[in-house]
Amino acid sequence: MYCMETSWPEVQAYFKTNECVMIITGSLECHGVHNPLGVDTLVPQALAQRIEKQSEILVLPALPFGYCDYLKGYPGTVSLSSETLRCVVQEIVDSLRAHGARRFLFLNGHGGNLPALEQVALRLNTQGDLGVIANWWQMAKEIDPAWGGGHGGGEETAAMLAICPEIVHPERYRDSILKPVSENIQTTGFKTVQFHGVTLTMPQPVAALCDNGWTGPDHPQTATAQWGEAMLEAISQLLVQLISELKTVPLKECYEDQ
Are strands 185-187 and 198-201 parallel, antiparallel or unpaired? Predict the structure, then answer.
């Protein structure tokens, strides 16, 4: 059931027998020169469409903005502060709780959203409700290690080829080279470097060290629509099972005052 397409009496009736809600969180940010800015929103939206057909769950419209300060140097990227994102998601949750929602599945498409989502989910689980975060790209890697990847690389590009190939540009596939900090400090990711084989955390503005915007071991040229379809189907089936399981989990006592 899509909340956007449903009247309030129907939502009222839903909450009389069901406490589950899905909140989709994404971002609007660079994913390489070959991918659209909306990858992190479009992929979980596509997963939600598959799940909604097989599960009785209220699906909210996707939140298309997240925390992505690392990528603000690329035009079109829109970043919310982590605290602003937390407040927005928390107020969405509070609104739904007022009408009967108690079990929340956050279907997340962007790693930068995690600190905010974890705070909201912890509050839910502390006050006796249920909050679970599903990061689709991490699920993919654990279902099949061959599906794992970086940012805007083969994994995410494969998902986009399965969803809407017309907005992916294979003719733009090219290497993405990260500039080193120095001769001995090699940049290995958006916030990691290596010094003499040891990984250190060093958050950097990505546009200053990369003229493409994707990173990781999975080159976009390895992506296929078949890979993306198999990956999305496996993830959606697992989440359908998860939703059924969440409905059986006993809600716990409130821990807020303990």
Answer: unpaired
